[in-house]
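ARCHIVE CARD
Drawer: 12
Card no.: 0347
Subject: one protein chain, sequence and derived structure
Cross-reference: see card 0346
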Amino acid sequence: MRVARLFNVAPASLSPDSVFGVDLKASFVADFKANEFDPLDYDIHDVADRPTLKQLSSGALVIRTVGDYCEQMIRCYKTKPDDVRRILGMTHSQPL
């Protein structure tokens, strides 16, 4: 839902194989103005633990698809469940 909301598309139109920048494009590209990819990047880094941040910064972990984003949220939920719920706008009664 978060990705669909950011890109203003129907959730049913997304698949795990939807590629950022190919299937999901920013509405504009500017050096100093945020676009749809910026909140996703913040999400990915905000929920990451230290080992995951190291993988991201080294290029060992790259989030290219909706499925990659979902897997990142699930992986980070194990160590930072409250952060993941906050980022995804979930209540504690909603399952991940």
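Annotation on reverse: Helices lie at 2-7, 37-47, 50-58, 66-77, 81-88. The mean pLDDT is 89.
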